[in-house]
Structure formats: structure tokens, C-alpha cells
Amino acid sequence: MHGSPLYTPEWEAYVLDLSVLRAQLIERQEITAAARIGGSPDPAVNVTLQMALARAKKLGVPKDNVEAALKRASGQDAKDALQEVTYEALGPGGVPCLMYVYYAQSSMHDDPDTSNRECMTDNPTRTVMRVKEMLNRYGGRLAEVKYLFESKAIFRVEPKKGQTFDEVFELALEGGAEDVVQDEDGPEIEITAPSSLIHSLNSLLAPRTNLSHSEVVQIPTNPPEAPLDDEVEKLLEKLEEKLEENADCVRLWRGA
User: Fold this and answer.
1) Cys bridge to 39: 86, 103, 198, 238, which one at CB 3.0-4.6 A?
2) What integer best gives the mean pLDDT of the chain?
3) What SS3 class is residue 104?
4) What 3-state DSSP class applies to 136?
5) How far apart are the C-alpha atoms of 104 and 124, rounded to whole Å?
């Protein structure tokens, strides 16, 4: 019995090529998102972006595509500049959720059947329909919940050789940090500050500590004290998975 003609070396090579192209596409999107999440299109002060650029290099993303992603994130090209849109929702069990999506300005009036794969999403109408569909599937709905979150800048650093926690603590406070906590199991230190300080604290911490991560996050102002019901937790996890599979949705924050 002959094998299927689909499973030939040529077909396998074709599928592999498609996988590589998809990975490169996702990484180009990640570069643009990292520039926004980390607070700057300058990798010298944005560690999140530095890591995204390193992954892009490893995946072989062409230099022109990397530069285009950075240009788009910085808004230098008015046609392709990104606009951030936040969808607010009550997820399964009434858990507040925020979903971040980036649109290219040039796509805001595109025909629904066209596709600009260089963008986070090319069609706002289609994206909101997808979000609604996924929310409905798992017992959620669009609703105003942003007031239940607070925007903060988070930094993760380790002391340089010979540097103490107290020295990092004082440096962070000097830069306007609100909270500085050392990991119980290692040398990593987490610093929390107002989101407006993402640029200035990046610039302060990067040369004077081993800064490994920085980003703007959404923290629930009144998280529930009791753990979620197991069934609700499972539904939330499924919703998160589906949203992460959707390239239009850059980030999701939960209130529990």
C-alpha cells in the first residue's frame, strides 16, 4: 500500500518553511508590542525590547522587517503608526479582564476581506467580533472594568557584583519606586513604580543594576481574598489560551 503523496520530503520542507515564516511573523509583532509594553522603542532603555530583538535575530527575521516594526512602534510612519485599543470585559465567574490590541492607523478603514499581516490586527470590526465570540463561549461579556485596575511599571533586577540589596533599594526609591521586594529564593529584586516612570527608571536602573525585565502592567485594585472556584479557573485558563492564540490580542490582564 502506497503512502499518501502529501507526506513527501518536499511537503515536509514546505511545512517547515511555513512554520519558520509564522514564527518570524509572530516575532515581528512581538517587537512592536515589546516597544510599547516596555515603554520605549529604544532597546538601550527597554530590556523587554532587547530580548525580543535577540529572539528575532535567532529566528532570522530580516533586518528591514525589524526596522519596520520599530518604526511602527515609535509612530515615525504616520501611515503604519499603531493605536492601542483596550477591550474591557467580565470573564467567566464575573472576573474583570482587560485585553490590549494594537491597530495600524492605515487599517482602520480597510476592507474586512483584506489582510495586512505586518500589523497586530488589520480590522477592528473583525477583532471585536472574535473577542465577543470567545467571551460568549466561556461565559463572559464586554463590560466597563478598567476602573478596577491600576497601571504600574514593574522592573526585575539583580544586584551587580559587590552591590547590596540596600543599595538597589535606595537607588529605586531615588527614582520614585513605590515598592522594592527581594525574591525569597534568589537574588532577583522586583521594583514597582507608577507607570509614568517607566522611561526614567529604565534609564536609571539599566546601567547601575543587572536589569532583566521591565514593563507596564495592570494590577487589580481589589483582588478577591478567596481563591476562584476550580471550574471558573478552568474556564478563565481556556479563555486566556484562546486569546493568546489570536495574534490580534497582544495582552490580557485578569482581576483574579
Assistant:
1) 198
2) 78
3) strand
4) helix
5) 10
DSSP-assigned beta bridge partners for residue 153? 193, 216
Q: Which grid cell is 209?
A: 543594576
How far, in Å, CA of 104 to CA of 122, rounded? 7
Backbone φ and ψ of 219, nearest 5°:
-105, 130
pLDDT digit string (tens) for 79-135?
Answer: 555 566 788 999 999 999 998 776 554 443 333 332 222 335 556 677 778 888 889
Residue 180 grid coordinates:
522594592
Task: Quote the pTM value.
Answer: 0.68
Beta bridge partners of residue 219, listed in sequence order:
150
Residues 224/217, Cβ–Cβ less than 8 Å: no
- Three-state DSSP at 133 gives helix
| Residues with Cβ within 8 Å of residue 133, at least 6 apart in sequence | none
The span from the CA of 134 to the CA of 233, in Å, is: 16
Question: How many C-beta atoms surround the C-beta of residue 57 within 10 A?
Answer: 12
Domain 148-220 has CATH 1.10.600.10: no
Q: Which helix (H) or strand (E) holds 14?
A: helix 9-37
For residue 181, how far is the Cα from the chain centroid? 23
pLDDT digit string (tens) for 185-209?
A: 889 999 999 999 988 998 899 899 9
Q: Which residue has the cell 531615588?
A: 174
